[in-house]
DNA sequence: TGGCAGGGTCATA
DNA sequence: TATGACCCTGCC
């Protein structure tokens, strides 16, 4: 569970203890405790929400089989072993878009803090087990705020991007909920119309909220570890790594990226 | 205490 | 196509 909650793909999970995390998923509060391969979930949701929760955690996918497939790339076996138990979540595209706009040139602690402040300021309170949580605001909530107000959430120069992207989504200029139905190339093209969204952020949005597993988002960690594994530790352009990964991993690229990211960040370069 | 890096993007030349 | 600026924070 820790690997999922702290894997850098979702920013609204907080650790209670080593096996227990509490997260906000749309309007649901999930208090999740892992016991062996079982998840015990306390939630404000109802029985109707079970399928949504299963979908969010991608529980219907056989990750044991997936890890076996990934292990056919011998050079990444250490990463697959280290990151065993990783999953790719199925999150809300709008929330994921804003979260990864904030992620640019930022660190995970800052990203989480800023998102939390945005939710407290613009979202709605959700009361659960004596605590108050906040939902992620809607596109129009953020489109209608002013830049200076947004800046108080410490998002810095990204305030302009957040507001303008929110406006484009609220106005339907980019139909973000429709993009899961179009090709990866088309989806990327649409997402990159949003200010603050470049290739990397667009690919993260597609991977973590649209199940486009053929993308391979390259950040500083992935760049470093790919250079170590495949490019003799030499400085290599992102474009070159991108092309290399596309040819090598194909439709497994997104999964490889997630296993490598966790490995690179927490083990290889620590 | 100051410099630097952090899941990049954008504007400029 | 290549460079530097950019908010803010935590770390060394």
Structure description:
By secondary structure, the protein is of the alpha+beta class. Helices cover 49% and strands 12% of the residues. The chain has 14 helices and six strands. The strands form two sheets. Strands 1-2-3-4 form a four-stranded antiparallel beta sheet, with no helix packed on it. Strand 5 (125-128) and strand 6 (131-134) form a beta hairpin. Helix 5 (93-103) runs antiparallel to helix 9 and helix 10 (184-191) packs across helix 11. The chain is globular. The chain binds a DNA duplex (13 and 12 nucleotides) through helix 5, helix 6, helix 9, helix 11 and helix 12.
Features:
DNA-binding; 270 residues; 4-stranded antiparallel beta sheet; 14 helices; alpha+beta
SSE topology sketch:
Blueprint: H1 2-5, E1 13-17, E2 20-25, E3 28-35, E4 38-43, H2 50-56, H3 63-70, H4 77-82, H5 93-103, H6 108-122, E5 125-128, E6 131-134, H7 139-143, H8 147-151, H9 158-170, H10 184-191, H11 199-209, H12 220-230, H13 238-249, H14 253-268
Antiparallel strand pairs: 1-2, 2-3, 3-4, 5-6
Helix pairs in contact: 5-9, 5-11, 10-11, 12-14
This protein binds a DNA duplex (13 and 12 nucleotides) through residues 8-9, 100-101, 103-111, 113-114, 151, 154-159, 161, 195-201, 204, 217-222, 261, 265.
What portion of residues belong to β-strands?
A: 5-15%
Percent of residues in helices: 40-55%
Show unreliable segments.
none
Largest sheet: 4 strands, antiparallel
Radius of gyration: 18 Å
């Amino acid at each position: 569970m820790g690997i999922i909650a702290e894997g850098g793909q979702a920013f609204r999970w907080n650790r209670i203890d080593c096996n227990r995390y509490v997260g906000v998923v749309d309007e649901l509060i999930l208090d999740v405790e892992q016991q062996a391969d079982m998840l015990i979930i306390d939630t404000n949701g109802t029985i109707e929400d079970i399928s949504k929760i299963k979908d969010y955690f991608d529980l219907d996918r056989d990750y044991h089989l997936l890890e076996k497939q990934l292990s056919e790339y011998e050079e990444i076996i250490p990463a697959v072993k280290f990151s065993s138990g990783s999953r790719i979540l199925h999150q809300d595209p709008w929330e994921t878009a804003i979260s990864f706009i904030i992620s640019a040139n930022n660190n995970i602690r800052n990203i989480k803090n800023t998102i939390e402040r945005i939710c407290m300021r613009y979202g709605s309170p959700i009361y659960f087990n004596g605590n108050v949580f906040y939902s992620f605001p809607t596109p129009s909530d953020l489109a209608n705020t002013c830049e200076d107000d947004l800046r108080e959430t410490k998002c810095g120069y990204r305030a302009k991007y957040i507001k303008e992207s929110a406006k484009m989504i609220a106005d339907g200029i980019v139909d973000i909920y429709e993009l899961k139905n179009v090709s990866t190339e088309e989806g990327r093209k649409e997402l990159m119309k949003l200010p603050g969204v470049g290739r990397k952020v667009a690919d993260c949005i597609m991977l973590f909220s649209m199940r486009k597993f053929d993308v391979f988002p390259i950040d500083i960690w992935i760049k470093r570890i790919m250079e170590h594994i495949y490019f003799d530790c030499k400085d290599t352009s992102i474009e070159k790594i991108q092309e290399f990964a596309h040819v090598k991993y194909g439709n497994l690229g997104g999964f490889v990226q997630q296993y490598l990211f966790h490995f690179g960040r927490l083990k290889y370069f620590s």
